[in-house]
Amino acid sequence: MLSALPSPGAHGGDARRVAAALGIDPAAVLDLSMSLNPMAPDPRPVVAAHLDALGTYPDPSRATAALAEAIGVDPARLLLTNGGAEAIALVATDLGVGWAGEDDFSLYRRHLPVLDPSAPRIRSNPHNPSGRLASPEATAAVWDEAFYPLATGRWTRDGDDALVVGSLTKLFACPGLRIGYVLAPDQATITRLAARQPEWSVGGLACAAVVDLLATCDLRAWSAGVALLRRELTELLLRHGLEPQPSHANYVLCTAAPRLRERLAPHGIVVRDCASFGMVGSARVAVPSADGLCRLAEALEVTAGT
Q: Is residue 212 scored above 70 in pLDDT?
């Protein structure tokens, strides 16, 4: 029996709490409330090969150099962080006074010490939750590019004076490992942010695994694969009257999806309720793998009309 469904978490990733309500193994839940790369190979063998890193203090230098080489930037412009969340906290605190829209990712407003509509802006690109890429003319003080590589097949739109925050967690589908980064236009900014960062912020296991994870990376192929799966997901959602909006990201926003989370949860599928974005009655659905699409299609068919 399904007990009371837990309220949506602030940032998705509700599989364990929903599984507890369902009385099933969390591994049996298809969690489409967190938007990970459906094309990424299983990261567990890579991470498992570096368990000896648990016996030493972390050293991010090799991982930083490998990421800088992949992006094509000077390592002095990069700072590895404990997930994208720490990157956001560091740059928002450094800004001091800034602005972020209420319809954007909530961590921006949470970590900005002072909110001022006329101040420098933090923006997600592609926008979270709509999934739409910013126009080439758009500006921001900070771009959150957590989903940009999967949307474009490129690492960054780097080229102006904006700071960039990113998330390897999303790209390599390993949310528990916590690997993010800040890309700055100059070394001085990285030096200042690093001085704010706690010592050994990025764990040794993450630092050790990054090099091998990057070796599995094929942004162009992954982005193309996500685009195909997103098209299939959009067509599926359209057939069920859920009004999916155009998206460039590895997720789709449905604006006519009241109680979709409650509808799918009994079938072991979780989607992101968008009330936390101020969008009551909307849901964000991550692009699943081909198998996940089949499972979602079955659940939507069974629950049609509910």
A: yes
DSSP, collapsed to helix, strand or coil, labels residue 182 as strand
* Sequence letter at residue 197: Q
**pLDDT confidence band for 15 (50 / 70 / 90):** confident
Residue 155 region by backbone torsions, left for phi larger than 0, else alpha for psi between -120 and 50, else beta: alpha
Structure tokens at 175: 């949310």
* DSSP assignments along 198-262, one per residue: PTT-S-HHHHHHHHHHHHT--HHHHHHHHHHHHHHHHHHHHHTT--BPP-SSSEEEESS-TTHHH
User: Whose structure tokens read 């094929």?
Assistant: 218
- State both tokens at 128: 């979270």
Does the pLDDT of residue 10 top 80, yes or no?
Answer: no
Reported in sequence order, the residue ranges of 145-188 that DSSP labels E, i.e. its strands, are 163-167, 180-183
**CA 271, 273, 276, 281 torsion-angle sign:** positive
Mean pLDDT of 233-262: 96
Q: Locate all alpha helices (DSSP H) within the chain, ordered by sequence.
A: 15-22, 44-48, 61-71, 83-95, 106-111, 148-152, 168-171, 187-196, 204-215, 219-239, 260-264, 290-302
- What pLDDT score does 276 carry? 81
- Cβ(225)–Cβ(39) below 8 Å: yes
Distance of CA 143 to the CA centre of its chain: 13
- Reported as a single tens digit per residue, the pLDDT across 151-175 is 999 999 977 899 999 999 999 999 9
Report the alpha-carbon distance of residue 144 to residue 167 in Å, rounded. 9
Residue 185 structure tokens: 């236009």
User: Which is nearest to 105 in space by CA: 86, 79, 81, 85?
Assistant: 85
Structure tokens of 89? Answer: 């906290």
